[in-house]
Amino acid sequence: MDIISQLQEQVNTIAAITFNAFGTLQRDAPPVQLSPNYPEPPAATTATDDATPFPEQPKQLSAGLVKAAKQFDALVAALPLSEGGEEAQLKRIAELQVENDLIGQELQKQLEAAEKELKQVQELFGQAADNCLNMKKPE
Questions:
Q1: Which end of the chain is more exposed for a tag (fewer CB within 10 A), N or C?
Q2: Of the candidates 136, 8, 10, 4, which has an alpha carbon nearest to the alpha carbon of residue 72?
Q3: Cα–Cα distance measured from residue 98 to residue 106, given in angstroms and rounded to the nearest whole number
Q4: Based on the domain organization, do 8 and 72 belong to the same domain?
Q5: How many CA atoms lie within 13 A of 2 on its CB side?
Q6: How many Å apart are CA 9 and CA 127, to the nearest integer?
Q7: What pTM was computed for the model?
Q8: Distance between CA atoms of residues 121 and 125, nearest Å
Q9: Are 65 and 14 in contact (CB under 8 A)?
C-alpha cells in the first residue's frame, strides 16, 4: 500500500476512534447536576461486570487516539520531501497539465475515429440485414 493510502487509512482510523470515544463518553458518563435550580439527576445505571470502569475509559480512549495520531505523524514524516521548492512544483504541475492536455486531445481524436468506425459498421450491418431480408427463394 502506498504512503498516501496509508495516510488515508490512518485518518479513517483516527475518525473512528474519535467517533467511538465521543459515543462511549456520551453513553457512559454519569449524570451531573447543571445548576442548583435543577433537580438532582437520576442515578446512573449499573454497567455490566466485564465493562471497564468509567474513570478508566477516557484514559484508554485517549491513549488509543494518541497512538493513532503518532502513527499518522510517523507516516507524514515518511513522505518524500519536495525537491526544488514551490516554484519547481508549480513548473512540474504546468508540465503535467500540458501533457494531460495533449493526451486528452489524442484521446478525443481516437474517440472520434472510433465513433466514425462504429457508424460505418452499423451502416454495413444495416445493409447486410436488408440484403438478407430481401433475398427470397426462387418460386
A1: C
A2: 10
A3: 12
A4: yes
A5: 3
A6: 56
A7: 0.51
A8: 6
A9: yes
Q: Provide the grid cell at 35.
A: 445548576
Residue type, 20: N
Are the CB atoms for 47 and 72 separated by under 8 Å? no
pLDDT attached to residue 33: 77
Which amino acid is residue 103, in one-letter code?
Answer: I
CA distance 122 to 37: 83
CA distance 76 to 7: 8
Residues 91 and 72 in one domain: no
Q: What is the count of structural domains for the chain?
A: 2
Question: 118: which residues sit within 8 A by CB, 6+ positions away?
Answer: none
Q: Give Dmax over CA atoms of the chain in angstroms.
A: 109
Looking at the chain, the number of H-run helices and the number of E-run strands are 3, 0
List per-residue pLDDT tens for the chain, 139 residues long: 788 899 999 999 999 999 998 888 888 877 877 788 887 777 766 555 556 676 788 888 899 999 999 999 999 998 887 777 888 889 999 999 999 999 999 999 999 999 999 999 999 999 888 888 887 555 5
Domain closes at, from 57, 80, 103: 80
